Amino acid sequence: MLPLDILEEAQADMINYKGTGMSVMEMSHRGKDFMKIAAEAEADLRELVGIPDNYKVLFLQGGASSQFAAIPMNLAPKGGVADFVVTGAWGKKAFAEAKKYVDVNLAATSADSNFSTIPPVSEWKLTPGAKFVHICSNETIGGVEFKDVPDVGDVPLVADMSSNYLSKPIDVKKYGVIYGGVQKNIGPAGMAIVIVRDDLIGEVADACPTMFDYQLMADNESMYNTPPCWTMYTSGLVFKKLLKMGGLEAVEKMNIEKAAMLYDAIDGSDGYYVSPVDKKYRSLMNVPFTLGGGEDLEKKFLKEANAAGLESLKGHRSVGGARASIYNAMPMEGVKTLVDFMAEFKKNN
Ligand code: PMP
Question: A Gene Ontology biological process annotation (predicted)?
Fold first, then answer.
């Protein structure tokens, strides 16, 4: 979801942005109006997250999936080993992609628990002198979320935050690279935001596409080519809104309350609804659950939920079941509607 007031603001400015006579979609990205939009978006994001000066902020096309390749090409330009901690489907994809560009070590995985937990850091088999350690801070499909930033010593920690970006405060200095697609918590699809410590960039692998060169992108303020203007603009509106709401602490508080309401409903259902995820690592954003009554009941649940206006509750095609994605813009009322529906469905079935 995007917040309704953001959609309305974008709608109001759609055809004639602040009296410029143009839509943001029609502007030159080198013109003063768009340059201002872009500069404000970066400044607001820096303020919102508290990004230190020695980190670059990049607005890049190609989503998070492109970063799976860009990261090894920037952080290990001459090869070396990269450690991966795989706690779900997205970490697995990042690992598979990195393998094309760097020697990879699977330092830890929760595959044997069907990605329902996070192996303790003390058990990770990290490589001394690794170029980086990669984690996925929130696995969108499995609903498994890191609750603390793992301490990996001096090796740069790289986190895919696609599905929990800006959902809670981020201690940027503990990371080498933070990245994620914006389309869940921030804005419309079409962009990834990369926050990278400046000493980690400068050199790229020989075969690195120009568009994946973080230093080049930083030198050009993400405008080496035509940037995703509309997505930058809309994301900028969301940054302003989150600042006005009181910043990421306030956002987190709201997200904790929303998630608690849903997990309580699942846990209090006497096994009618089941969360497969280790309680310690349950995601605040993606809540997968099954119905104890089996697949046919699940189908009925999803069909009736959809008819009741509860959209996109089907679990990812790779795992089935149900999944409620309760990203930042999902209001408490949305979760309440779901929880009420779940109780009613249980009573009737
Ligand atoms: N990582 C995670 C955690 C995701 O949830 C997704 C998208 N669902 C991706 C990466 C891929 O993102 P994109 O579609 O922007 O390439």
Answer: L-serine biosynthetic process
**Amino acid at the residue 67:** Q
Q: Tell me the pLDDT tens digit for each residue of 26-74.
A: 999 999 999 999 999 999 999 999 999 999 999 999 999 999 999 999 9
Q: Whose CA is nearest to atom 12 of ligand 1?
A: 64
Considering the chain, tell me which residue range(s) the CATH 3.90.1150.10 domain(s) occupy.
247-348
Report the 10 Å Cβ neighbour count for 197: 17
- Ligand 1 probe mutation, 90, 136, 167, 323, most atoms within 8 A of CB: 90
Chosen CATH of 4-245 out of 3.90.550.10, 3.30.200.20, 3.40.640.10, 3.40.50.450: 3.40.640.10
> Tokens 């793992």 sit at which residue?
150
Query: From the CB of 63, is ligand 1 less than 6 Å away?
Result: yes
Is 160 an annotated catalytic residue? yes
Query: How far is ligand 1, taken at its centre, from the CA of residue 272, in Å?
Result: 31
